[in-house]
Design brief:
Number of helices: 4
Structural class: mainly alpha
Order of helices and strands: HHHH
Shape: rod-shaped
Number of strands: 0
Helix content: 55-70%
Largest sheet: none
Length: 109
């Protein structure tokens, strides 16, 4: 007794029950679940990355450089070598950089 292919209706020949016309039945065997998990997992990762890019705004390179400059300035100004009055004086350029950043990008650094 020969069976017919569920996809195209052609008669299946051979012991492995693969359709010669449409190759249906190829996904049988121990790798079927592994392939399905891989495809679903890849799709989930792609969707998650797309959503993450849409939700979190990216910094343009100039904004990233400005933030880095402010962080470096504040780190140098908070050096323990300075006493508190000198530390306040050393933070003045950092405050000016922060004001320029706020004026340009519309939010605090």
């Amino acid at each position: 007794m020969t069976a017919s292919c569920p996809a195209c209706g052609a008669s299946l020949t051979g012991a492995d029950a693969r359709c010669a016309r449409c190759a249906a039945g190829v996904d049988r065997g121990p790798w079927r679940l592994a392939k399905r998990i891989f495809v679903v997992g890849s799709l989930a990762v792609a969707i998650a990355l797309t959503v993450a890019q849409l939700l979190w705004p990216r910094l343009d390179p100039q904004e990233a450089k400005a933030l880095d400059a402010i962080r470096r300035c504040r780190a140098q100004a908070n050096d323990p070598v300075f006493d508190p009055p000198a530390r306040k004086l050393a933070q003045m350029p950092c405050d000016m950089l922060a004001q320029q950043y706020t004026a340009r990008y519309g939010h605090e650094p």
